[in-house]
Amino acid sequence: xSSPKPDAxxxxxxxxxxxxxxxxxxxxxxxxxxxxxxxxxxxxxxAAWRQxxxxxxxxxPWMLEAVIxxxxxLGRHLEALVIVVLLxxxxxxxxxxxxxxxxxxxxxxxxxxxxxRVLRDAAxxxxxxxxxxxxDLVHLxxxxxxxxxxxxxxxVVSLDQAALTGESLPVDAGPGQPAHTGSIVRQGEATxxxxxxxxxxxxxxxxxxxxxxxxxxxxxRTIFAIVKRLVIFDATLATMVIVYAVLHHLPLLDTAVFAxxxxxxxxxxxxxxxxxxxTALGSLQLAKKGVLVTRLPAVEEAAAMDTLLSDKxxxxxxxxxxxxGVTVLAxxxxxxxxxxxxxxxxxxxxxxxxxxxxxxxxxxxxLLADAPVRQAFHPFDPGTRRSEAVYxxxxxxxxxxxxxxxxxxxxxxxxxxxxAALADAEHGLAQSGxxxxxxxxxxADALQLLGVVGLSDPPRTDAAAVIAQLKQLGVRVRMATGDxxxxxxxxxxxxxxxxxxxxxxxxxxxxxxxxxxxARVLPEEKHAIVQAxxxxxxxxxxxxxxxxxxxxxxxxxxxxxxxSATDVAKAAAGVVLTDPGxxxxxSVVQVGREVHRRMLTYTLNKTLKTFEIVVxxxxxLWLTGGFVISSTLIVLLxxxxxxxxxxxxxxxxxPAALPQRWRVGRLMGAAGVFAALSLLFSFGAYAWxxxxxxxxxxxxxxVVFLLLVFTNxxxxxxxxxxxxxxxxxxxxxxxxxxxxxxxxxxxxxxQGWLMAALPAALVAGLLLACVAFxxxxxxxxxxxxxxxxIV
Length: 791
Description:
- The protein contains 25 helices and 21 strands.
């Protein structure tokens, strides 16, 4: 029998010390994994029956449950039973759809792993962080999430614990000090031993960094704003109905049921399931294209994006730096001396592309064969914009420095002529699109500028084409780079981005419309650029890969972590690309607009049908002095309509050519026009049947029911596309659901199930009349859509 796993609140069993030269063995790691469990915070599991019961405990179910009670008080047991069955059916469908969506998201998230560098069996290897166990030896680098609680024993790191403690200032940690789970390594490298995993960690909140944001999306806020207006509108009419009933001595209980059903009619019963289904299906579609969605609202937010701030290296370029040129600026020096000094200011261990691009040609030319003894090395820091190495030469400290010309020049105390020569050399190499580094060497108090080196990172072969396609879709791409202005301008011209270069301060932030490119950008300045674009009214996307990109990725409406992104960037982003380049962003925009189109069809249809149903029933009461439809048929109407409109989430649609935003006023206006036309048709058809067919009141209620169902189907088919309703083939599920809905309610009407029976000729006549109405509405749509700028 295996030992029980220790709880988070109990002391861990004693463990043998880990040999720091070999790490744990695979067998010992497996034993400890079985003992302590996975290094993860388990999601709180809710029993399936509880999730189902929750579907019956919300405002909409409460209203329907109140109707059931009133029906029982009136002795209408059959009607009460019908509503109970429909209510349970709705709960089950919503439950199943949400479970499917959650399963889909779980499948996607299993592709997003936080990795850890661990020493096992005397070999360093990368493993999923979930497999870490107490006693493992873990190596940390800048950009990592600390994967478990560690005690450091080698190296020094700067840790950002803002996500854990709220403190914005980094904390330095060295040998003997802790590094807690979820901290971000800002600078440095260190090795530590795991002392706690999973729920036993000091904070135990790593999993929350990759969970969905709970804030509602623009679409959710818009739809709920519309629903609020509909509820207010319906509540006003319900009050008028009650006043009318009191004045005309109508049965109070029947009136109460009727008024309550008016309110129920304004609530989108299928909204949560439809939204979850539409975005989850979009996420699955994107996963097949190499894009992982970490927050569902990001799929639909992409539809509104009109500006994309893209980093350069690895996204727009190939991320393959090569030496493209050397300019000598020191008398008595040569190109080899400049390249050698640049290589001495570099280090393989940093894996910095700049360092590697300098070291490769220097080694190939044998320039480092007699390198002096190095005493210290300071890797490139975005804050200082230089790297520096200290060597011992002739018994004295000798420095080799490389970095931005604007930084190296002042260190060398150049005169005006030398500064001009440096600027000319930098400009000459930068014009070709190269990234330029100045190189200096000498003692600390007498650094000599040797020259400059140019490093080229050629654009990706597909970058210009993708940028052009995004431009055609109304998305303007701007580039942010740490390169000099001339370098940024050259790349911008090559890729078709433009040539207007700004810096991340002054007019560059106050007037972002004048900026195609941002140069000399520090990683932390990207957040300010995103905010400036948003203040200017843009819905902004942002691509990033580094630790310091995380705030900007979170700030942007659509944060995109590129293929080479750190774990921190992936945690902050809404979508993660698994393939290099911007092609995945193009897919996100296209799928996002498809989702938006589906939800636009749903919202328009729900709004206009609410207007039509509520006004029809109220006017019917005032004009006839009685209820033109029973409460049972109202409930049946709501469910038959909502379950079909829910399949809009699977419809085949044509994405809009330009960015899409939700405009409540225009939506309500367009829905009002369509509702008025639908109301005129329904009232006209009802009046004709009432005047010519001689049907009893119960049969007339069936006529009302059929008219409202058939016109709902007509509106769905008309509003789902901008062109003629037959110009775009419908999705299979929506088509079959619509046809099945019409056939089912027609069968009910013919057989007299749950309603009074109607002759077949009348049912067919009503259906044909609705088809003719759909053709008329389709023609009207071509006027209404442009008038209200719906798409």
